[in-house]
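Structure, all two chains, one model.
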Amino acid sequence: MATLEIKDLHVSVVSEDAPKEILKGVDLTIKAGETHAIMGPNGSGKSTLSYAIAGHPKYTITSGTVTLDGEDVLEMSVDERARAGLFLAMQYPVEVPGVSMSNFLRTAATAVRGEAPNLRHWVKEVKGAMADLDIDPAFAERSVNEGFSGGEKKRHEILQLGLLQPKIAILDETDSGLDVDALRVVSEGVNRYKASGEVGVMLITHYTRILKYIQPDFVHVFANGRIVESGGRELADVLESEGYVKYTGSKEAAALS
Amino acid sequence: MAALSTKPHSHGAVVPVSSRAEHFTSYDVNAFEVPGGREEIWRFTPLKRLAGLHSGAAATGTAAVEVSAAEGVTVETVGRDDSRLGTAGVPGDRVAAQAYSSFENATIVTLPGDVKSEPTTVTVTGAGVDAVAYGHIQIKASQFAEGTVILDFRGSGAYADNVEFLVADGAHLTVITIHDWADDAVHVSQHHVKLGRDATIKHTVVTLGGDVVRVTPVVQYAGRGGDAELFGLYFADAGQHQEHRPFIDHAQAKCRSNVVYKGALQGDGAHTVWIGDVLIRAAAEGTETFELNRNLILTDGARADSVPNLEIETGEIEGAGHASATGRFDDEQLFYLQARGIPEDQARRLVVRGFFQELIAKIAVPEVRERLEAAIEAELEAVGT
C-alpha cells in the first residue's frame, strides 16, 4: 500500500533578487486507492506543489518533509523519484527535438522497470495504449512533444502514465485546454490507470469539470500556498457554484504580490 | 570556368571586404599578404597555432592518400602541372593559395557517368607530429553520375589543402568529409564545389578531432538548376578550435542551396566559429536559399561565434533566409526526461543525440552514421556529468 506523505512543506522559488516563498506549510497524505483533487485559484501554488514533489531544480524546499512509503523523497534525484514510483503529468510537457517518442518511451520504461521490456510484448503494449487514447501510431516516430497540439501533449502524458504504472500519480491541470472529446479520452485513461492497481492520484485542477469523469475521494481547496479546506466530493459542488472568492477575497491581491 | 579575379591586390593596409563578391582570390601565394590576425577572414582564427601554414612554412613531409575505390571509379595520382587541376575554384585565402603553390602530387577520383556507384573512401593521413604537408584532391562526378565519396582525415601534423568537387551536368554527388585528426593536428582546408546544370551535391562536413580545423567550402554554379545542400556537424572539446566558413555564390538562375550546421561544445577554451556567407548575384533570378547554424553549449568556458551573412542583388528570388542560435543545455528537457525515470547522464546523451539527429539521419552510408553516433557517445562520455 503506497503512501505519499507531505508534512509542513515550505517551498521557495529563486527570483531575480530574493527568494520568494510560495508554499507555506502543506500537509497532505495520499494513500493507494485514493484520489485527491487539489483545487484552487491561479497563483495559489498548486503547480509549485507538483513540481516540488517531482524535484524541479527551480524550487527550493526550505522546510518540511515528503516521504513515499517512509522513504525521504526530497533526498532523491529527479529520476530516482520517478523510479521510486512517483509520476508527474505536466501542465506544459517539454519538447525534446530529435528524440523519437518510441525511443523515449522504451528508455523510460527500461529505467522505471529496471530492465528492458521484451521487444515484441512492448510494441504490442505501446500500440494498444496508444489506441486506447486515440493516438495515431505515426506519433511514435515523431520527436517527443515537438509540434504536438495541447491536447496531443496531454494524451501523451497519460500514455506515459499508463506505461510507467507509478504508485502515485500527480496530474497537474491535465484537463486545461482540452476540448470535450479529449477530456473524455484523457479521463478514461486516468480511470484505467486507477483501476489497474493500488495507486494513488493527486489531481490538480482549476475547474470542476474533470471531476465529472474522475471521481475524487477527497477535495482540497488550495489558496495562498496551503490547503485551506478539505472535504469530500460535495466540496467540489460548492466550489462549482460559489467559486474561490470565499478563500481569496481581498487576500487574492496579497497572494499574488 | 574558374572566375579568376582581376581585382588588383592592395598591399598594405587592412581593408575590410564589404561584399563577398569582391573577395580576393588567387592561385599564387605571393598575391596574398601574410595575415596578421585583424583581417576580416582571419580575425577568429588563432594564427599562432597554425604552424606557419599562413606565413610560408615549407613542407617537411607528405600526407599519405589512400583510396578505396568502388567499381568503375578511377583513381589517378598526377603532378601539379595537370591541366585539369584548379578548375573548380580559385584559392580564397593565403593558406589555400600556399597549399595550391606547394603540393607535389594531386589525387583525382572520377565517378563514371550515367551509373550509380558504391561509396568510395579517400583516407588522408597527416605527415606526423610537427611535420608540415600540403595536398590537393579533386573529385569528379561525370555527367549523370551518382555516387558517394567519403573523405577521412586522420593522423598528426599540420596540413593545408584544396579539395575540388566538379559535378558535371545532371550528376548527383554525395560527399562526407570527416575530420577525425589526432589532438595535435592543424588542418586548413578549402573546398571548391562547381555544379553543372541540374547537378546536385550533398556535402557534409564532420569535425571532431584536431587542435585547429578551419574549413572553407565554396559553392559555385556553372548552370541553372543546380542544388547544393551543405551540412555540418561538429563537436569541440576543451582547447579545440573548429571553424567552418561555407560560402554559396549564386550567380546562375533557378538554383537552390540549403546550409545546416550544428555544433556542440564542451570544456574550457572550446571554440567554434561559423561564418555562413550567401551571395545572390543579379543574374541569379529564381534562387532559393536558406542557411542555419545552431550551437549547443554543454559546459562553461566554451565559446561559439556564429555569423550568417546574406547579400541579395536581385529581388527576383524564390526565397532567402538565415537563422542562427546558440544556447545552453536546456534544463527543462533534462528535467522532463529525468521525471520519467531516465538517469541524468543518459538524459543528457539523449538530448545531444537528438540535437544532431536531424543531420545524422541524412547520412546515407550506415557505417559512417554508426561511426558518428559512436564518436558522439565517446565525446559525451569524456565530459562526465
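The interface with chain A takes residues 330-333, 335-344, 346-347, 350-351, 353-358 of chain B (CB under 8 Å).
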